[in-house]
Design a protein that fits this description.
Blueprint: H1 2-9, H2 12-46, E1 57-60, E2 63-64, E3 70-72, E4 75-77, H3 79-106, H4 122-135
Antiparallel strand pairs: 1-4, 2-3
Helix pairs in contact: 2-3
Length: 136
């Protein structure tokens, strides 16, 4: 059983998958940083200087204690953060589309094998057999 597990772990598919997961995490961090640090400030600027992450509907305000520490946290619907997530999804999807498109373009095109010459049809073979039998 240990040998089977070792063979399973050392196969190329598992190692390729592990590398893909690690790279996906790194690409995710880069794309999230790009969206949050570059794109969202630009969108916020053109939207009147607001930060979407701050947009919310407060259902219950926070209840502060005497020293400024909240005894009860604020309960709010953070719809601005949801908009940020949607914009993030669109940008991640676009980046992945560009990456896959570039990868597919860089691959060597697969040349199709030439089609085999078409043989005679069944009717042609039957006519040929009939003619041969008629000559006898």
């Amino acid at each position: 059983m240990l040998k089977e597990f070792k063979n399973f772990i050392l196969t190329g598919n598992v190692i390729d998958f592990a590398v893909a997961v690690i790279l996906a995490g790194a690409v995710g961090l880069v794309v999230n940083g790009f969206v949050n640090d570059i794109i969202m400030p630009i969108v916020g600027h053109f939207a009147g200087g607001m930060d979407f992450a701050d947009l919310k509907i407060v259902l219950a305000a926070a209840v502060p204690e005497s020293e400024g520490v909240a005894a009860k946290a604020e309960n709010a619907i953070r719809w601005g953060a949801w908009i940020n997530s949607i914009i993030n999804l669109i940008i991640v999807g676009f980046v992945m589309f560009i990456m896959v498109k570039a990868y597919n373009k860089s691959k060597k095109p697969v040349e199709e094998a030439p089609a085999a010459p078409a043989g005679p049809t069944q009717e042609e073979l039957l006519v040929e057999i009939r003619d041969l039998l008629g000559k006898k």
